[in-house]
What does this fold into?
Amino acid sequence: MYREILPNLYLIEIPLPKTPLKVLNSYLLKGPERNLLIDTGLNLRECAETMDSALRQLDVRLDQTDLFITHMHADHSGLVAHLAHSTSKIYCSQPDAEIIFNDILSEQGWEKVFVGALDHGFPAEELALIPESHPGYQYAPPKEVKFTEVRDGDPVSNGDYHFVCMATPGHTRGHMCLYEADKKLLISGDHILDDITPNISSFDLEGWDPLGEYLAHLDQVYRMDVELTLPGHRRLIHDVRKRIDQLKQHHQERIDEIMTVVRRGSAANAYQIASQVKWDINCKSWDDFPLAQKWFATGEVVAHLRYVQGQQG
It folds into this structure.
C-alpha cells in the first residue's frame, strides 16, 4: 500500500479499478510542520479508503497537509475535495485548475470538447455515451476547491526537499512536474511514465499542438541532471534519458503508422484513421474497443496529425 522511497518521502499506491492504468502513484512528503501530498486518485470509494488508511498508518493529519496536483485528470485530482482541509493549500497550474472546475464539471465544458470530437469523425451516437464511460466525467472532484496557482519556476519546499515547479504541457495544457536539483529527483506526473506511454491527444479546434510541446519538454528533461524519476503510474525510473529516447521513438513510429493510413486513402477523418492503427489493447477489432479507449485513440491521432501539419509549415 505504501513504502518509503527516500527519507520522509513515501509512495502510496492508490487502486484505479476498471482502468488500464491499474494504480496511481501518490507521493507523500512528511515535513516537520506540514506535509505535502502529490496527486490523489479518483473520486471513488476504493481510492478514498486506500488513501485514508495509508494516511492513518503514516500518522498524517489533513489539517497539517497541503496538496500538489500535477495535472487535471481525475485519477490525479479526483479526491481533492475529500482530502483538502480548510487550512490546506492546493497547488495546481492555472490552465488545469480552470479546467477541473470550470469545464470538466459543466455540461458546457464537455460540449466544447464534443464539438471537436464530432469534427474529427467521432460518431454522434457513440459520443452521447462518453459521459457514462469516461473516468474524467465520472470520477472528477464533486465540488469547487480554492487553488493556489503555481507557475514554471515557482519554489515548493517541504522539510529538506526544495522543489521547483516545471511546466511540462503536452499530456494536458497545464501539466506540472517537480524537480529537486540537490537530490537529482524528478516527480514527473504523467509527463514521463515507464511501462506505458502517456496519452497525448486533443479534440480542441484552436490548433494547439500538444505533441510538439510534449516532445520539446521531453528534451528539456533530457538535459537535466536526474537520477530518480517518480512517475504517476507504474515503476520508478532510474534512467530517464533512456526512457525519453524510447518515448520519442514511440511517437515517431506512431506518426509513421498514421501517415501510412493517410497515404493509403482508406480513412476520411481521425476516427477512421484510429480504427486502422495498431493499439496495445486486447481486442479483436476496433468495434470491440471500450468507448473510452476509442476516445483516447482518436484524440491521439488528432494530436499526431496536428504535429505533422506544424512540422510541414
